[in-house]
Amino acid sequence: MATSSETHVVDIESMAHGGTGVGTLETGRSVFVPRTIPGERVEIEITEEHTNYARGRPIEWIETSEDRIEPDCPYFEQCGGCQFWHMPRERELELKVETAVDNLEHIGNLELPEPEVVEAPDDRRYRSRIEMHRRRTPEIDRTEWSTGFFEAESHDLVPIDDCLVATEPLNEARADLETALEDVGDADILFETADDSSVVVTIVPDQWTGDPPPSLREFAADLETVESVRGVRVIGDDREWVIGDDSVDGSQVIADSPVETIRFPAGLFRQANPAINRQLTDHVREAVEQQGGDHVLELFCGAGNLSFALRDTVDQLVGFEQTSAAVEMASTLASFVQLEGFRFVEADLSDGYRDWLVGDDLGFDTVVLDPPRSGASFVCEELVDADASTIVYVSCEPPALARDLETLAEGGWTVRELTFFDMFPRTYHLEALTILTR
Predict the structure, then answer these.
(1) Is the domain covering 7-68 a CATH 2.40.50.140 domain?
(2) What residues does CATH 2.40.50.140 cover in the chain?
(3) How many CB atoms are closer than 10 A to CB 190?
(4) For 177-226, what is each residue's pLDDT tens digit?
(5) On the chain, which terminus has fewer CB atoms closer than 10 Å, C or N?
(6) Quick check: pTM over 0.85?
(7) Bridge partners (DSSP) listed for residue 392
(8) What would the CATH number be for the domain defined by 129-265?
(9) How far apart are CA 383 and CA 39, in angstroms?
């Protein structure tokens, strides 16, 4: 990678996955420019040079789109967390869907049905889980540590006092914890809602030797007076220190929990938009019902967010998941509500699922999978000749989904339904639900 300070005038022609506008340089190479909109003409400075493409930053808008609006977020110009505060939500969602469909059609060489689009009820105060960072920021005349998000394509910190997409409890907890972080140094910090009004915070310092930092010990002594924080975990390479209660209500992790009072350990994977997560699980349940499946193999099942939505729909479900704590909680919950046909297994699916199948597992008629961002390439290679009649695939990364769907299509599977969920408004992320049959 090379850098350059050259300037160019480019026309923004389309939107790339990642939320950047795409133009063409005089050399024919594509250039990716953040905070632009198709139809705009922009003077840019090249920030990265690559053989086949470049990246640039906008210097001046020569022609602006009629869609451009003033961002409500005061950090938008610097923060790398969101990509779409500069246009109306309708245009944002339109561009995200266009980009996702383009990825699926061209990367996956697929013919797709007309997609359904599920819009989020709001574009702010929806996130129940955020990861922030603690760093020094001397480049903006700060000599002490600050808490915030990184700039795009950078580890330079943007201090954040109020994140518009985070729920009020997360912002309150961040503010209430600020003095407790004074002696922590560089750290990554996970804030996740424990219930509707309090938060569990997980702090991972870059360096931690000896006793917990003094500022955290002082905070621990007063924790009962801090209504926004239920508990704090501090995690080092070989140690963990917990202040208060570090569990979260099951309803924060599972959209349709069969038990209201159960609590899960903090730090498990969870969807960060509860309102859209409920719609996602409803769609998955309806898809399984419509296909008539009663024996489900669920891959990458987590703590059972999709699994327990199917408890009144299917007779048998075996869920495979790599995270042992998630498997333990899903198993405990299934046992507690006497779901005798539900079984959860700790399994590393990086090389596929077939070696983990035993006995009755072989008789599944429906596969549900919700893999990580990288996709499920080896799993899909094995699903090509599976005996199942239906695959319900949930994905948070359209390019990875496209590659997996291409593998399945080459094996005779057909995409019957496609639904996009705007799980993270104002960001480029888009959740996809694909139903395949053959």
Answers:
(1) yes
(2) 7-68
(3) 18
(4) 999 999 999 999 999 999 999 999 999 999 888 888 999 999 999 999 99
(5) N
(6) yes
(7) 368, 435
(8) 2.40.50.1070
(9) 42
